[in-house]
Amino acid sequence: MANRTRRKIELYAIHAHETRTFTYDRLFEALSKIPAPQRVFDVHGYVVGFPVVAKYRGGYFIQATEGDPDAAALVFDRSTGQTRETDLRGSEVLSQATHMFVSPEERRASIEYVRRGVKAVMLGPAIEGVLSQNIQELRRLRIEFTPRTTEDFVREIQEFERIRLAAIRITKPNASWTDHYTQLSELMDDSRGEKVEIDVRAGRGESLKKNSGIVRVIKQVANDDQPYLDEAIITGTRTNETTETTIRASQHIQHTRVSVDSDEAGVPLQQSIRSALTDFLNRFI
Questions:
Q1: How does DSSP assign 252-274, residue by residue?
Q2: 147 burial level (CB within 10 Å; 0-12, 13-18, 19+)
Q3: pLDDT at 42
Q4: Is 80 exceeded by the pLDDT of residue 76?
């Protein structure tokens, strides 16, 4: 009987800039054609590699690994309470695998959440790094994966009677700031900025407005057809409550939990996690 493990899968939008003549499909096709030893890039001191980049059902199935080159290979034996060192070759690092499925045409990605694996926030810089160091035309490429927020997030904002603080961090959409107009768009477009982060606080005993200003911008961005919200935070007091509550967009990412086939160590089998990722993404395209 096959082993099974539970996995969380999250939904993301893809935003790319400075791609020259490359379409989204060409970007991932180019990634798949780069030899595996060259599909490696350092992000904030961690080695991120892409051992598997394979075309599958109109998209691309990708396995990403992350490792700390300074981590010691120490094995703990629970039966004896003893440890032993494992020798690694100079090019080897201990790593965890994260899997994802990308639909270039829809600019969507389903990404497995692995607690000790590479996260979505690092996947964009790693992919752009691999492509830019291997393809001259893409040397200025920028790629980001931004989460798709559930409708519950905006509904929960409406439950606040008083909003003391509202904060937002957004990334530049694929088209432009002006094509996704908010009250912050003109400032960012004129500044030629890629990201904007702002927080607004109410005066003592006062409340921010729920249907204008910064809170209105948060609702607009959260509901955009092509999500570009990195994070949003609302802190305040709900109706009939006295204790403050904080809600975050990052806690309302569209997701599912699935059971997939795994090996004896609990690592998902590629065929099983690939099907789960694809089926989940297809529900939203």
A1: SB-EEEEEEEE-TTSPBPHHHHH
A2: buried
A3: 92
A4: no
